[in-house]
């Protein structure tokens, strides 16, 4: 997940839907609203959504049916909204693939906390496996490939690559990379170690290491992973 997370609220009670939207706008989110399953499907076709807040009971069908179809296509986090006495909806929702639930009536502060927790988990999960161009970087299983061919990366190269990918599009200073990749504040590491590791990564990842497309030098500052 990069940029501002987009949240789609699917709730037929327009007053409640607007109240949730107002509560969440205090965070750094883009908020979309839908009041039916058909409207939600249209939104999902038009927009990239990072999290859904989904009411179970909607005027044109059951939100759990929408959840089931969502799980066939992907793993976008879903928080269910359900009536306090509908335990069966909660159980069915969790078994269908909901990531969390909250029962009505609920505290907006609690909902904000649940939303933040799901977005954090989603971001961490996305960083475990990243596909960019012909590359797949699977940090969870320590498997890396280009065009399906395995890439052998040392532990230090993996750490540096992960840092650059986690902050792709941003410039990371040499001091930051030394401290985060080598630890101990980077105080006892020869700065040349960073240059050597960058060169090794470029040799393995770049078509033309002398004219890198991915790992670029920001002169006098540090390095950046330039391709989003």
What does this structure look like?
By secondary structure, the chain is of the alpha/beta class. 43% of the residues lie in helices and 24% in strands. The protein contains eight helices and 14 strands. Helix 3 runs parallel beside helix 4 (87-96), helix 6 (155-166) packs across helix 7 (174-182) and helix 6 crosses helix 8 (192-205). It starts with 5 loop residues before the first strand and ends with a strand. The relative contact order is 0.09. The mean pLDDT is 86.
Summarize the biggest pleated sheet.
Answer: 5 strands, parallel
Q: Strand order across the biggest sheet?
A: 2-1-3-6-7
Summed over residues and divided by their number, the pLDDT gives a mean of: 86
Structural class from helices and strands? alpha/beta
Q: H/E element string?
A: EHEHEEEHEHEHEEEEHEHHEE
Instruction: Name the helicity range.
Output: 40-55%
Number of continuous helical runs: 8
Kindly estimate the percentage of residues that lie in beta strands according to DSSP: 15-25%
Beginning-to-end CA distance, first to last residue: 11 Å
Low-pLDDT stretches: none
- Label the overall shape: elongated
* Strand segment count: 14
Radius of gyration: 22 Å
